[in-house]
Amino acid sequence: MISYRLGVDDLADMRFACSPMLETATSLWALYEPSSHVLHLPWIRRTTALLEELPERELLLSLVAPEVQWLPDFVTPRPTSPLPDIEEELAKVRATPPARAVADVIRAYDGRRLPPVLEQLCEHPRRLRDRVGSALTSYWELAVEPHWPRMRMLLEADMVHRAQLLARDGAAAVLTGLDPSAQWANGVLRLRVSSYQLEYDADVRGRGFWLVPTLFAKHAISPVDPSEPPTVAYPARGIGTLWSPQPTPAPQALADLLGKPRASLLADLAAPTSTRELARRREVSPSAISQHLTALRAAGLVSRSRAGRVVLYARTPLADQLIGQSRL
C-alpha cells in the first residue's frame, strides 16, 4: 500500500504531465508479457520483429524484474513540466549517479537474482548507467518515436479530461478515479500495488504532486524515491482506440440528420482528439476536417480545448445525448 498525505496547498498545486520516457520504459512490460497487454498487440507484433536487430535487446528486457515486473526508478525520471522533451528526460537518465543506478536495479528485483547481463554490469556502475541510457535511446528511436505523436495525443486528451473533472467535481473525484484501488479520506490518498510487496507512507508537504497518464500500466503505479517529487502514473482513458485504424461508425439516424462525414466525426469524438489525428484516420486533409468541426462547434455539438501545443476536440453533453437517442 502506498499512502500520500496531502494538505490543502498540495491539492491546489496538483499538476498533470505526460512523459515520453515513462512510455518508453513501461512499454517494455508489453514486450515482456504480451498476453497481459492485448490492446497493444498491433504495436507488440511490429516492435518484436524490429527488436530482433537491436543489440541491446537482452539488456532492455532484463530491466523488467520478473514476477513483480518492476522497473528501476532511474529509467522513469519524474516530470518537472507538463510536456517534457525526450532529450531532456534521456539526459536525466544518463546523468544518474552510478551508485544510484545500481541500487535501483537491485531494489527492482526485490531480492531475486539478477540476470547475467545486469549482474555483470552492476559490478561497473558507470558502465551500467551508460549502457542502459544508450539502450533506451536506441529503443525510443526504434519502437516509440514513430508512434509518439499519436500516443501523446491520447495522453494529452486524458490530461484535458482530468483537468476538466478537477474544475467541475474537485480533487476527490480526480484522485479516486485514478485506479479502482484508489482511496481518498481525511487528506490521505492510498493506492494498492498488488504485484509488489510495498508499504510506503509519505507527506507531500509542498514538494509538488504530479499525476501522469500512461498507456502501458495496468493499474496506478508510483515511484517511491523520497528525494523525488511524489508522482502517480495511472492508466489513461481510451487506450483501446490507440491502434485502431478505422474511425468509429456513426448511427444511421445521426448520419441522416447531419450527413455522413459530420456524423462520423461526432461518433469518433468520445475522447478528445486533434484535427490531425481525425484526418489521419480518414486519410483526408486536416483542412477538410476543420471545416466540419467548425460547423459542429457552431451547433453546440463539439467543444475545443488546448493541451500544450495541440488543440483537442470532444463531444459536448448535447452531442452525447443526440448519439444516444439516435441509437435507440
Secondary structure topology:
Elements: E1 2-5, H1 8-12, E2 14-16, H2 20-32, H3 41-51, H4 57-62, H5 86-94, H6 98-109, H7 116-122, H8 125-144, H9 148-169, H10 171-176, E3 183-185, E4 188-191, E5 200-203, E6 209-214, E7 231-235, H11 252-258, H12 260-267, E8 273-274, H13 275-282, H14 286-298, E9 302-307, E10 310-315, H15 317-326
Parallel strand pairs: 1-5, 2-6, 6-7
Antiparallel strand pairs: 1-4, 3-4, 8-10, 9-10
Helix pairs in contact: 2-8, 5-8, 6-8, 11-12, 12-14, 13-14
Describe this structure in words.
- This protein has 328 residues and is of the alpha/beta class.
- The chain has three domains: 101 residues, no CATH class; 128 residues, no CATH class; 82 residues, Arc Repressor Mutant, subunit A (Orthogonal Bundle), CATH 1.10.10.10.
- It is 48% helix and 13% strand.
- It is built from 15 helices and ten strands.
- Strand 9 and strand 10 form a beta hairpin.
- The model has no long low-confidence stretch (mean pLDDT 87).
Q: How widely separated are the two ends?
A: 44 Å
| Inertia-based shape | globular
Helix percentage:
40-55%
Query: What string, H for helix and E for strand, traces the elements in order?
Result: EHEHHHHHHHHHEEEEEHHEHHEEH
Largest sheet: 4 strands, mixed
Unreliable sequence segments? none
Whole-number count of domains: 3
Structural class based on helices, strands and sheet pairing: alpha/beta
**SS field, number of helical segments:** 15
Q: Number of DSSP strands?
A: 10
Features:
3 domains, 13% strand, alpha/beta, globular, 328 residues, 3-stranded parallel β-sheet, Arc Repressor Mutant, subunit A
